[in-house]
Amino acid sequence: MARTRFDSGLLTILAVMLLVGAAFAQRSSTSAEDAKLRLITGLNGLCVQLVSILPIIAILLFVLAAVVYGVGHIFGAEMRSKATGWATSMVVGAVISLLIFLLTRPILSIFVPDIETSDFCKPTFQ
User: Cα separation of 72 and 44, whole Å?
Assistant: First the structure.
């Protein structure tokens, strides 16, 4: 298969991005405890954000799916089938976001076992 101009340009961009990333990489001179504390603090921030936004997104997706499904049935058969597909996709997205919401803390506690018994995944975590 012959290479196109687009392929070589894409490879060039990828190579430049890898080199830039390597050029700006820094070696951390901190202790292992400090690195662990920063990791736990970062994971807590991620967990707090996920727990606060995912239920809202799930509710909005369920409501929007109901609206799209209902409006789709007002129009013809083609629009009805498209709306049914869109609504199904929204419900699947809502269920996935609820699963992520429910499994965030247990999955993160696998990576850092110390957080299982603490007030992890709360804004007051220290």
Answer: 41
